[in-house]
Amino acid sequence: MDGMNVSVWGLGKRYGSVRAVEEISMDVRAGEFLSLLGPSGSGKTTLLMMIAGFEMPSMGKISIGDRDVTYVVPNRRNVGMVFQRYALFPHMTVADNIAFPLRMRKVPRQDATRRVCDALALVQLEGYGKRLPSELSGGQQQRVAVARALVFEPPVLLMDEPLGALDKKLREQMQIEIKRLQQRLGVTVIYVTHDQEEALTMSDRIAVMRDGSLEQIGSPAELYDGPATPFVADFVGKTNFLEGECRSYNGTGLEIGIGQSGFIRLVQCPPALTVLPKPGDRVRLAVRPEQIRLLRPGEADGPALEGVVETVIFVGSFRTFLVRLPGGELVHVQVHADHNASHPGEGDRVSLAIPGHAVRVFGQARC
Amino acid sequence: MPATPVMRRPFLRGSPTSSREYGRTPSLLLVTPLLLLLSGGFLYPVGKLFWGSIFAPQATLKHYLRIVEEPLYLLVLWRTFEIAFIVTVLALLLGYPVALAMARVSGRAATLVGACVLIPLWTSVLVRSYAWIVLLQRNGVVNSSLLEAGLIEAPLQLLYTRGAVVVAMTQVLLPFMVLPIYSVVSSIPDDLTRAARNLGAGGLQAFLRITLPLSLPGVAAGVLITFVLSLGFYITPALVGGPSTLMMSTLIGQQTTELLNWPFAGALSVVLLLATLLLVVVFRRALALNKGFKLG
Fold first, then answer.
1. pTM of the entire predicted model
2. With contacts defined as CB-CB under 8 Å, which chain B residues touch A75?
3. What is the ipTM of this complex?
């Protein structure tokens, strides 16, 4: 089965005066794994339900491959779907569940039996065909749901937070399994999740949604390193936000003062800004915790922020330092755990060196 | 004792019995008031009726022989089951769509449908039976409308017929069919129907293969309750039915209140009770053969 591209143009959904989804346009490439990432109420599930055909869009168009499916009933769209609570039919055996889409398509019995066996093998559940869904564990039910959604070889697979009900360890294992399966089969996957780690792990591209509109779409690295808005910077990965004031701009660099805490010098023109800030403008900076270097006071060879370590958190592979700046801001600094090196302890004075290339600058108006 | 079909949620795993959850002694304590009420208010009088029917005053089976020997009584017993059966089938045919609609609609429409089902239930059976008399009598609403429309020349005999009994009983008992079905249908997750549609089933297919089989426990409960209630129904058949629609309860009523023949009334009651129990057991057996999805 080869994946097909899915396109939406100006797709919107209103419930009365409530806009659940604003006019969204995007293109999911054939064979791509795209995540719709956003907090609850961001419209990601509504968007998925419109693509599946369970919600009628208020405006716009949806096409799968070259076919306009905007007004096609769900059973004629030929897309697979995995639901949040699996939605396995409780009165049918696992094999009957998986055979259901084949039966609906009038596939001959012998052929169907073979394909059900293949699908069970695909999700490593050989021999479970005769059981009822309630006799399986959550992870196994989830695999049956995947097998059922793939057995009729749909070019597109929609997944609505399919791992939400599983515990962390199983979830991580299933993430990798689903990703491998998708790569092997070449099916296009649209995956709804509110878990940014899950989206980063699995996706070719992530579409971040907020309040019904598309905030940014891009590869995990693009989103992580170059968030277009403070919301994306905050939602994808951990971020420190600092309020600053533009001090001077001399053609090559920009100096931004962080209250009484010091200043940061940016050598390149910050890419998120369309208009360069003038001296005196208020801006918002975003810095990833692992981009900040933690130094002893005075050790920095450039501009640095001074602060006091308030808390040290040990998280296995790294340590997180919460550093209080004189202006009152709390900065998270993440440092790889090196058991030989000595780290500053709580109450120690430190210098924070923030390289200019690691800083994202957002105008105040956009926050 | 197995849980009633209404309480079953076939898609939830294992409904723990109360004894497993609370321990045996507290469970027994919880059912004690009901057991006392049942033995004082049901077992004792039924036992006394039964006793009276075979020792009057010496041991005798003459009351039972009378039931078997006089064709009238077997006819009434047969008619009672026949009417109960027709009423149950009608209530199922009328009630299932209503239950489905109740589970599907939301907002103001849901309140309206709910009210239509519940308000009759909260109204006295006597009032509803008299309402049918008002509708069906010789110069009642139905007859006068038909006369005015010119569809009939003379008023029809509607009241005191088998049709009147069936229609009125169906209306009175409808909520007992609708509510158990509604309770089960509304607990079927929407995602199941959606999944069926997504996998290629049309609306009708999704209903026949998913909603209908999953609603069967509710149907079973509704059918059982409606059928058993119709078997013992007294007020409505007594008011809107005539001599040709005499049913068991009315017959028993006559024997106790008018003829004061308690031993014979006792014999009739015992026969009705046994016939009902037999049917319930057969019904449950038939269901048990077909409960692949009922897990517990």
1. 0.82
2. 197-202
3. 0.83
